[in-house]
Design goal:
Elements: H1 2-33, E1 40-46, E2 61-67, E3 120-125, E4 141-151, E5 157-179, E6 185-195, H2 197-209, E7 211-217, E8 230-231, H3 232-237, E9 265-271, E10 274-280
Antiparallel strand pairs: 1-2, 3-6, 4-5, 4-7, 5-6, 5-8, 9-10
Length: 283
């Protein structure tokens, strides 16, 4: 009887040990398969597409979860930290709002907030051809060409086209109302370019005294080429460009100075014990 009880107890202990080991094994497998918990934080993103110059408020922003171990330089974690500031570039929906994409708080909103210090924004009226058929949009880069006439010798004029500005950023493209020659209002496309102060004068002169044309370029192509001017006479005649006009030098004959007068004669006169020297003109 004791042997049977011992055998039953031994069998029960083995069964209990097997069950415990199976439970521990299963628990270890689940722990190994489960991913480690990732610490998260919230960052501010755009709740909708934000065009350049848009002032930010709570309705245009929201927060999303972001791994705390992967911070983004210039990111914000609170919506109130970026309100009342303007974006200086186009921002897509759900794109993080970063410090580098915002104008200073004191700069206000709208187009003025997008103009960097030391630069100027200048608007010029264009048409569909000058605006490259609508492909000139905010953020694109263009070259500015101007066509006008130059005065040559003998009152002769020649038409020339030259590139006056290269790699200029387009800040805005819109419409404005102005009167035509008959005094009727009409809609005119307007392109606003970001230029240096010294280039603003060139652009203003070109748009008023000549005819401008915009050449669209790749935004990653920043190399300055400085193309040579194109003369109408050369373009249509097929010849070589005329040599630059040389200044005319007029020679004036200068009269020679008169010769110096001849030296006078000198005579020594002795009278008694007195000696003196006298001079007489040499004629």
């Amino acid at each position: 009887m004791n042997k049977n009880r011992l055998a039953i107890g031994f069998a029960f202990a083995l069964l209990l040990a097997f069950a415990a080991s199976a439970f521990v094994y299963h628990a270890f497998r689940q722990a190994a398969a489960a991913p480690a918990a990732v610490a998260m934080q919230h960052i501010v993103v755009a709740a909708e597409p934000l065009p350049l110059g848009t002032p930010l408020d709570a309705s245009k922003l929201r927060t999303i979860a972001w791994p705390a171990s992967e911070p983004v330089t210039g990111m914000f974690t609170k919506v109130e930290d970026v309100t009342n500031r303007a974006v200086i570039t186009n921002v897509a929906e759900n794109e993080p709002i970063l410090e580098a994409k915002l104008a200073p708080r004191e700069a206000g909103a709208g187009l003025p907030a997008t103009i960097p210090a030391g630069m100027r924004a200048l608007s010029v009226a264009v048409n569909d051809v000058i605006g490259v058929a609508g492909f000139v949009t905010p953020g694109t880069m263009v070259d500015v060409l101007v066509t006008g006439t130059i005065q040559g010798q003998a009152q002769a004029t020649s038409t020339v086209t030259r590139t006056i500005l290269e790699n200029v950023r387009v800040l805005a493209a819109g419409q404005k109302m102005q009167q035509d020659r008959d005094g009727k209002p009409e809609t005119v496309p307007v392109i606003t370019l970001l230029v240096a102060p010294e280039d603003a004068g060139k652009l203003a002169m070109a748009s008023t005294e000549g005819k401008i044309q915009l050449a669209l370029r790749n935004t990653v192509d920043v190399k300055a080429t400085s193309p040579a001017p194109v003369l109408e006479s050369v373009l249509f005649a097929g010849g070589e460009a005329p040599a630059p006009e040389k200044p005319v030098v007029v020679m004036h004959k200068v009269a020679a100075p008169p010769p110096p007068p001849p030296s006078p004669f000198t005579v020594e006169v002795i009278s008694g014990g007195k000696r003196e020297t006298k001079s007489f003109p040499n004629q």
